[in-house]
């Protein structure tokens, strides 16, 4: 298992569109077989698959993997606990986006109402 302090020392994610499983393994300090296992366990983690079933991860995938790594290796969550934590985080984000969208719509409707007066 990795030392808890290693997450702070992870390399900077380069400005690329796609990363191979080897690159992600290096960027997140997690072995490729662990990444493949996490894909099965976490539905949010789904890299693009191309020729020969090769995986190509995007930046958001790398960030998610780092978050999963932190939950499991540093914060001591189990796989099940990490799943619940990620789902609750996504639910909170969705709620915040919905509130922002509703607020924006209210402002726009008030502007239209002013124009009609």
Structure in a nutshell:
The chain has helices at residues 21-28, 32-41, 59-74, 79-116, and strands spanning 19-20, 48-50, 54-57.
Main attributes of the structure:
mainly alpha, 4 helices, 3-stranded antiparallel beta sheet, 117 residues, disordered N terminus, Multidrug-efflux Transporter Regulator, Chain: A, Domain 2
Explain what this protein looks like in three dimensions.
With 117 residues, the chain is mainly alpha-helical. The protein has one domain: Multidrug-efflux Transporter Regulator, Chain: A, Domain 2 (Orthogonal Bundle). Helices cover 62% and strands 8% of the residues. It contains 4 helices and 3 strands, in the order βααββαα. It has a 3-stranded antiparallel β-sheet.
CATH class: Mainly Alpha
Instruction: Please give the CATH architecture.
Output: Orthogonal Bundle
E-strand count: 3
Largest sheet, order of strands side by side?
1-3-2
**In sequence order, what are the helices and strands, one letter per element?**
EHHEEHH
State the end-to-end CA separation: 67 Å
Mass-distribution shape: elongated
Supply the helix-strand structural class: mainly alpha
Portion in beta strands: 5-15%
- How much helix, percentage-wise, in residues? 55-70%
Mean pLDDT metric: 87
Counted by DSSP, the helix tally is 4
Topology:
Layout: E1 19-20, H1 21-28, H2 32-41, E2 48-50, E3 54-57, H3 59-74, H4 79-116
Antiparallel strand pairs: 1-3, 2-3
């Amino acid at each position: 298992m990795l030392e808890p302090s290693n997450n702070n020392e992870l390399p900077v994610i380069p400005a690329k569109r796609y990363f191979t499983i080897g690159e992600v393994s290096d960027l997140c300090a997690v072995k490729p077989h662990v990444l493949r296992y996490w894909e099965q366990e976490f539905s949010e983690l789904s890299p693009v698959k191309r020729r020969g079933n090769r995986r190509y991860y995007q930046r958001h995938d790398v960030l998610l993997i780092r978050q999963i790594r932190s939950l499991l290796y540093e914060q001591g969550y189990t796989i099940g606990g990490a799943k619940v934590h990620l789902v609750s985080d996504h639910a909170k984000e969705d709620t915040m986006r919905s509130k922002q969208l509703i607020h924006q719509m209210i402002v726009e409707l008030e502007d239209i109402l002013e124009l009609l007066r």
